[in-house]
Write a structure and sequence with these properties.
Blueprint lengths: L7 H9 L9 H13 L6 H8 L12 H22 L4
Helix pairs in contact: 2-4
Length: 90
């Protein structure tokens, strides 16, 4: 089964939109995730995800586009975690 996620360019366009939502783009998400992963304390997604969405968590019921956005960000967190843990030189 294919994961239900967006491509990163598509996610960036969705999040940034016209700029009125106050959401950050994918490059800022990468920086946040790198800081979360490299930090001295483990943080749960509910602690850092709101920073991406203007300080609040989106309503993301199963099967909705918002759930797909959150899934994509969680997938990126896993990728960055792997890179920093297993292949830090990358």
């Amino acid at each position: 089964m294919t994961e239900w996620v967006y491509g990163y360019d598509e996610l960036d366009e969705i999040l940034r939109g016209d700029g009125s939502a106050g959401f950050v783009g994918v490059s800022a998400i990468d920086g946040l995730i790198a800081a979360v992963v490299a930090g001295p304390a483990a943080l749960q997604p509910m602690e850092w995800l709101p920073l991406i969405f203007g300080g609040r968590m989106p309503v993301a019921p199963p099967g909705t586009p918002n759930q797909r956005v959150v899934n994509t960000i969680i997938k990126r967190h896993a990728e960055v975690s792997e890179i920093l843990d297993i292949r830090p030189a990358d």
